[in-house]
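REQUEST FORM: STRUCTURE PREDICTION
Request ID: SP-0412
Submitted by: Lab K.M.
Chain count: 1
Length (residues): 275
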Amino acid sequence: MRPLAYLREKYQINIITLPFDKNTWEINEEAWNLFAIKKPKCIICSSKSNVTGYKLPTKKIFEEAKKYKAITLLDASQSFGVDKSITKENTDFIVFAGHKSLYASFGVAGFIKLGNTPLKITQFGGTGSDSLNLDMPSELPAKYEAGSKNIIAILGLHESIQWLAKTNVHEKEEELTNYLYTKLKELPKVVIYTPSDFQKCVGLLSINVIGYKSDEVGSILDEEFDIAVRTGYHCAPLIHDFIGSKEYNGTVRISLNYFNTKEDIDTLIEAIKSL
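STATUS: Completed
RESULT:
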């Protein structure tokens, strides 16, 4: 949202948030009317919410967007390498970060250019090649890479990709998410932020505990039970009005991955019961 806010101030672009149903979390049909009226230049979607774990219907959204020749950009940071259903059809760009679903370290990220949309160069500098040329190289990827690469992080990402190719992370995350949801539903003081079909949320769940602010829950879990969760607004300012979590100062986000166990979840549940 910060890059978009910058572009809005600099170029006076209009930013419109697509409407979703507050019960099912499916995209509202009035979105297609918005497309017809506004003729969007660009549609940006996350493949999965980093607050709720909800998998967005990006295939349908991008299909509609292309009827108006809009550029389509998929932020796949939350699911790249794990969710094999990520759509390439009607997608111009996919962006990703190594330290999230790709199970690598901080300091490496990238984008995949699938369409024919040209990109301007935004960073300038040397990489150690073609040094006599005062312009940025015209070939890819050097055209978009300025400065020394983070070789250590890139090597770590390469190893993670090899591991992901032979490991069904998505199936394990689905199993753990379903187990966590079932256990949380048994706790009367816990508010869980999911659509009516909770199975559309994978890999993480956001909750709050009635009587506590989200940061209070996080501090107690950390200091008294040595359990790590993330609390607050999670770099996602728009979703909290939609799910109604501002009264708690955001949410308590419980993130799951391949290396978690059901025993970890049981320990978490017992800790929450003490609140």
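NOTES: The first strand starts at residue 42 and ends at 46.
Reviewed by: T.R.
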